[in-house]
Specification:
By secondary structure, the chain is mainly α. Among the domains are: about 45 residues; about 60 residues. Helices cover about 80% and strands about 0% of the residues. It contains five helices and no strands. α3 crosses α4. The chain is rod-shaped and about 100 Å long.
Length: about 160
């Protein structure tokens, strides 16, 4: 009786979960809801599982439930594998697109940097050389203009 209560509680959680997930995936929710109801029925009426098993040709109800559980587990495992594989393909495509975008931007950046370097070379060659410090013209052009000091307390 205690095992039936614990298993019933667990299957009630499956039913609640399937009801909550119905909007996201109706097919999976419907199948898990049916499996939860069938589980509850066979927990409280174990002789009926034996009758169904004998009708199918298995012999015992416990064996039927075990076979069904293995089949459902394999289907779920296959479904998870297919979803994981499709996500891996999407991640690979995204990584490829990002790598190509970065390669294009790096190539464009290198082209711009080389163009800027060439421009800098040309402008440096076009500028007249700076006069030496000994020239009088240099000292005159770099003379400092003095402004009157401003007292900060007078402000």
């Amino acid at each position: 009786m205690i095992a039936q209560a614990i298993l019933s509680l667990l299957l009630c959680f499956v039913l609640i979960y399937s009801w909550a997930e119905y909007r996201r995936s109706p097919a999976v929710a419907l199948l898990s809801f049916i499996a939860g109801l069938a589980g509850l029925y066979f927990i409280w009426m174990p002789s009926h599982s034996t009758q169904v098993a004998e009708f199918i040709g298995i012999g015992r109800g416990a064996d039927l439930i075990m076979y069904l559980w293995v089949c459902i587990s394999l289907i779920v495992l296959l479904n998870l594998h297919l979803k994981l594989r499709s996500q891996h393909e999407v991640i690979t495509a995204l990584a490829r697109a990002i790598a190509l975008a970065n390669a294009y931007s790096a190539t464009e950046g290198a082209r711009l940097r080389s163009a800027e370097h060439e421009t800098a070379k040309r402008t440096a060659a076009d500028k007249p050389p700076l006069p030496l410090a000994r020239d009088a013209s240099y000292k005159e052009s770099t003379s400092v203009v003095r402004t009157p000091a401003v007292d900060s307390t007078s402000l």
